[in-house]
Amino acid sequence: MKRLLCSLLVLLPMSSAWALCASVAATPAAFGSVNSTLVRTTVQNASSTNSGLQCTGSLLTLLSSGDHFYATITSATNGLVGPTGDVIPYTLYADNSTSYPITRGVAFDFARNGILDALGLLNGTTPKAVPLYLKTQIGSNVAAGVYQETLTVAWSWNYCSGIGALGVCLGRDIGNGTQTMTVSLTVTNDCQITTPAINFASAPVVAGFANVSQSLSLSCTKGSAYTVGLNDGENASGGRRRMKSASGNFLAYDIFKSAGAVRWGSLGTARRSSSDADVNPGNGTGTGSQVFNYTARVYTDQATPPAGSYLDNVILDVAF
Hints:
- This is Spore coat U domain-containing protein.
- This protein folds into two domains: 16-188, Immunoglobulin-like, CATH 2.60.40; 191-319, Immunoglobulin-like.
- It is built from three helices and 22 strands.
- It has helices at residues 2-15, 36-41, 115-119; strands spanning 17-23, 29-35, 45-48, 53-58, 68-74, 80-81, 87-88, 90-93, 101-102, 108-109, 123-129, 132-136, 145-163, 169-188, 191-194, 212-220, 227-230, 241-244, 250-257, 272-273, 290-298, 316-319.
- The strands form five sheets. Strands 1, 2, 4, 5, 10, 11, 13 and 14 form an eight-stranded mixed β-sheet that branches. Strands 15-16-21-19-18 form a five-stranded antiparallel β-sheet, with no helix packed on it. A four-stranded antiparallel β-sheet has the order 3-12-8-9, with no helix packed on it.
- Strand 13 (145-163) and strand 14 (169-188) form a beta hairpin.
- The longest helix is centred in the first third of the chain and has 14 residues, at 2-15.
- It is elongated and about 100 Å long.
- The protein starts with a helix and ends with a strand.
- Residues 1-16 have low confidence and may be disordered.
């Protein structure tokens, strides 16, 4: 019996495996900088490489039904809150898919779905942390600015941390800890712009071209004040825009604000502000369109150029 007892004391440490977990500071999760249109229409993704739990160990078997790794996530808000009080909701996930959503305020057991086993959290001598994944929900019509939320992540674990030669549990690691995680997303201004082409059709002389009265529309970030400018095109001369033919001849024309005679340009008061829109004036709404009317005219005080097709390209810019 003494010789057998001595042999067992030598074999057990050599055949056992141990693991140890600890509550550690969580890393932030950042969605980055995203324009308001994409925030409203497209799911955005973020992740934290460490949600507050780190383990080091060398367990050689998968977690059993009696082992638990609970994470309970709470917050004073229910999404990312911006400077004007707008909220961007998002969903938390235990892995980088949509298979394991985490409900706020409800304990989620990471041990019950094989996630910790897949991470190799308890298998190896290098410390490993539990990541957390986040996906925004589409439909958020929000103002520009920095959106943030602070999550409280409460961890509680209880698992077999030491396994003997015959698979017998030699001890359990039981612990808990709470960490905070900052989540952020920066929303930038954006506009969806509709600009129809200007077509003067055909005429034998410059006096025969009819005026073209139409409009362009913009749908810009909620709450944004902006101005709209039109540059001088590719062939401007003498304060006038000009179309050019393939033969190098020019036909002078211009674009005027609404139905008036004030030239629409790109600098200073020549621009148009969102408050000057002909339809829905004021700051952007994020979803509704603001319409700017204009009239394009061919100057009749110029000589009629040779027949041909005349073209020009004018760039519209929006400044916030």
